[in-house]
């Protein structure tokens, strides 16, 4: 069931989303060669706690795996999403996706961005640019009267025109009263298909785009999703609310 939020509920979601946005900007400015993903994780958790909020990912459980141990997901190069923070040292030329979820006052925000570690190849720069652009094209489709398929079509048609592929095993989702709510929001689809979009919906839209094949697998750690061919992947995400006939980005810093 797709939950329609009241103005007051959206205000609570907006507060959690603002913390998410601030964490992402904080980490973005700190990412450089030599930093470990665990350092980023601790920095994020400290900031979230200082705002009387909770890291929504920490302790999150899914079938067949242990509870997620990190406050953020840190996914490097061929890691698509759900990378576990640890002693991994970031190296010049890598790209890293940072995904942050926050819960405050019982409401959730969720967003992600991909950041260059030092100087990166033109190939990786283009992948990041196209993926981020596809996110904003998708957000523009999140209007009453459109459908979920319009969001997915916007992502797919744009990124595939550059020869990239859309991850199909993972998708965006509703968010707000819970970290993951209906509807699921694939990054591919047909115009005019899927659930009808309405005012009061709050959605996490998150293109996950691979340089090579769309095929992925879950690493032996039980969480980290990686590209099957070992080529890099980029990931950008915003939580949005549909208000007065148009999308508002809640996780914009």
Automatic annotation (TrEMBL):
Record-linked SUPFAM superfamilies: Creatinase/aminopeptidase
Protein family: Belongs to the peptidase M24A family. Methionine aminopeptidase type 1 subfamily.
EC annotation from Swiss-Prot or TrEMBL: 3.4.11.18
HAMAP family: MetAP_1 (MF_01974)
Protein name in UniProt: Methionine aminopeptidase
Catalytic activity, as annotated: Release of N-terminal amino acids, preferentially methionine, from peptides and arylamides
Residues annotated as binding a divalent metal cation 2: 110, 173, 206, 237
Manner of cofactor binding, per the entry note: Binds 2 divalent metal cations per subunit. Has a high-affinity and a low affinity metal-binding site. The true nature of the physiological cofactor is under debate. The enzyme is active with cobalt, zinc, manganese or divalent iron ions. Most likely, methionine aminopeptidases function as mononuclear Fe(2+)-metalloproteases under physiological conditions, and the catalytically relevant metal-binding site has been assigned to the histidine-containing high-affinity site.
TM regions (residue ranges): none
Positions of a divalent metal cation 1 binding: 99, 110, 237
CC per GO annotation: cytosol
Cofactor(s) demanded: Co(2+); Zn(2+); Mn(2+); Fe(2+)
């Amino acid at each position: 069931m797709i939950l329609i939020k009241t103005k007051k509920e959206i205000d609570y979601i907006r507060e959690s989303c603002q913390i998410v946005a601030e964490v992402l900007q904080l980490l973005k400015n700190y990412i450089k060669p030599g930093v470990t993903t665990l350092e980023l994780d601790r920095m994020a958790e400290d900031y979230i706690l200082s705002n009387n909020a909770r890291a929504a990912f920490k302790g999150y459980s899914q079938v067949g795996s242990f509870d997620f141990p990190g406050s953020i997901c840190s996914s490097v190069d061929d890691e698509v999403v759900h990378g576990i923070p640890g002693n991994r040292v970031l190296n010049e030329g890598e790209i890293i996706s940072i995904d942050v979820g926050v819960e405050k006052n019982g409401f959730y925000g969720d967003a992600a961005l991909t950041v260059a570690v030092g100087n990166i190849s033109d190939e990786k720069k283009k992948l990041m640019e196209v993926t981020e652009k596809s996110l904003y094209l998708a957000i523009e489709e999140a209007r009453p009267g459109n459908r979920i398929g319009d969001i997915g079509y916007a992502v797919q048609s744009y990124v595939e025109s550059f020869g990239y592929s859309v991850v199909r095993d993972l998708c965006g989702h509703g968010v707000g009263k819970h970290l993951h709510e209906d509807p699921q929001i694939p990054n591919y689809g047909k115009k005019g298909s899927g659930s009808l979009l309405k005012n009061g919906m709050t959605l996490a839209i998150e293109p996950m785009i691979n340089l090579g094949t769309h095929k992925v697998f879950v690493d032996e750690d039980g969480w980290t999703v990686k590209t099957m061919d070992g080529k890099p992947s980029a990931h950008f995400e915003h939580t949005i609310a549909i208000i007065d006939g148009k999308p508002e980005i809640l996780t914009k810093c």
